[in-house]
Design a protein that fits this description.
With 276 residues, the protein is an alpha/beta fold. It has helices spanning 21-31, 48-57, 82-87, 106-116, 133-144, 156-166, 175-182, 227-234, 242-258, 264-275; strands at residues 7-13, 36-42, 62-65, 79-80, 92-96, 99-103, 125-129, 148-153, 169-172, 187-190, 215-218, 238-241. Strand 11 (215-218), helix 8 (227-234) and strand 12 (238-241) form a beta-alpha-beta unit. Helix 1 runs antiparallel to helix 10 (264-275) and helix 9 (242-258) crosses helix 10 (264-275). Bound molecules: NADPH dihydro-nicotinamide-adenine-dinucleotide phosphate (NDP). Residues 67, 106, 130-135, 153-155, 158, 191-194, 196, 219-221, 242, 245-246, 249 line the site of NADPH dihydro-nicotinamide-adenine-dinucleotide phosphate (NDP).
Length: 276
């Protein structure tokens, strides 16, 4: 029941109407018996500093930050944790008595989902397709976990810049680029928005490059079964879907706000329900 003790968690982004986080987090708070509520707020770019001041002024316990504000919020926070600073993006804010700390749970969320599937990245070679915001978190996570990484992206400058920041290699998004990137690789991650609904027949990687023994992780979660994952399964690859990362990054955020373990099964069911 919402009462005068209810604590608020806010989602700040633009747009936010499509987000499954309210369904996922509210189900988690209810299952954990916590008097918390999670609400989405569409925040235009010009209102970001005011929205962050509002978190502080109203004593709102925390927030998720989503596209396009993950970098824009950073100057308005009191502290940025090391991981978020290295990545250059904040997706979670924690408010402790008016002191706002920015964190990044996309990177550890990706890594937890990967390790949950039984893949240990240390000493392995990974190919990351994409060099946008999500790809940054994925590449930092993989490099931090001891993997070597080849980045393949449509825009070469963005790939080169991410590669320079992380000690990865950058290759063009061509057949020759994919061939070179995939030589000796055991993991491929799609961190582009290719395959995202409604363009569900698009795939970032031609099926001819898929072979048994590769683990294929598609962080796109709408649809849950992307064309890339279908092609990968047909080629005998192990596959991991974006829902796993979505739930893990949300569970880690829940644990920061609530200070207790997140009910991951409940969150997964609620997110899958909201996506369906
Ligand atoms: P960005 O806009 O920051 O980056 C988009 C990336 O996709 C860029 O690398 C871009 O390449 C590439 N891209 C887009 N369209 C094309 C195309 N037609 N051809 C080739 N490359 C293309 O988005 P994000 O990084 O924030 O998000 C990417 C995806 O990850 C989204 O689908 C999002 O939903 C998903 N995501 C999933 C999460 C999860 O928890 N599972 C968490 C966060 C994101 P270029 O540089 O050339 O423009």
């Amino acid at each position: 029941m919402i009462d005068s003790n209810t604590r608020l968690i806010a989602l700040l982004g633009d747009p936010v109407a499509h987000s499954v986080s309210p369904a996922m987090q509210n189900a988690a708070f209810a299952a954990a018996g916590l008097n918390f509520v999670y609400l989405a707020f569409p925040v235009p770019a010009a209102a970001v500093s005011g929205a962050v001041a509002g978190l502080r002024g109203l004593g709102i316990r925390g927030a998720n930050i989503t596209i396009p504000h993950k970098t824009a919020v950073m100057p308005f926070l009191d502290r940025i944790d090391d991981q978020a600073r290295r990545i250059g993006a904040v997706n979670v804010i924690l408010n402790d008595g008016g002191r706002l700390t920015g964190c990044n749970t996309d990177a550890p969320g990706f890594l937890a989902a990967l390790k949950c599937s039984g893949f240990e990245p240390s000493g392995k070679k990974a190919v990351v397709i994409g060099a946008g915001g999500a790809a940054r978190a994925v590449v930092f996570a993989l490099r931090g976990a001891g993997a070597s990484v080849a980045i393949v992206n449509r825009t070469r400058e963005t790939a080169a810049s991410l590669a320079a920041d992380t000690g990865a290699a950058a290759l063009p998004m061509t057949d020759a680029g994919f061939s070179e990137a995939l030589a000796g690789a055991s993991l491929v991650v799609n961190a582009t928005s290719i395959g995202l609904s409604p363009d569900i027949e698009a795939t970032p990687l031609p099926a001819k490059f898929l072979r048994q023994g590769l683990v294929v992780f598609d962080i796109v979660y709408r649809p849950q079964q992307t064309r890339l994952l279908r092609d990968a399964e047909a080629a005998g690859c192990q596959t991991i879907g974006g829902l796993e990362m979505l739930v893990e990054q949300g569970a880690l955020a829940f644990e920061l706000w609530a200070g207790q373990p997140a009910p991951r099964d409940v969150m997964s069911g609620a997110a899958a329900g909201a996506l369906a």
